[in-house]
């Protein structure tokens, strides 16, 4: 089984979650991305969020939310995306950067706008009472 190893940032506010949309894409996803060789989870988290949203994650305060696996959207059947998700405070002002076209606040009613892996995450956060 092939697995895409991704690290994602879960930023919740007012029972909504921050979502990002890449240029030319319709689907919203959680900020983050693929690990580079030799990187730890938090190193990947810090680098990816800085690239995408121009803020600095406070890595020493990162907390594991969960690990989720699902079919990778837009890929051959059997290619799995494994998303290791963290929450963490940040410094700076959130703004789309690099390949990100826009950011928005999402909740469980937005399941038609997000990836399969994100649907698992949203469902878990709703069950925990963290997301509307």
TrEMBL record:
GO molecular function terms listed in the Swiss-Prot or TrEMBL record: 8-oxo-7,8-dihydroguanosine triphosphate pyrophosphatase activity; metal ion binding
InterPro entries: NUDIX_hydrolase-like_dom_sf, NUDIX_hydrolase_dom
Family from the record: Belongs to the Nudix hydrolase family.
Gene Ontology CC annotation, any one: cytoplasm
BP GO terms, sorted: DNA protection
Protein name: NUDIX domain-containing protein
Domain Nudix hydrolase: 1-127
Coiled-coil segments: none
Listed cofactors: Mg(2+)
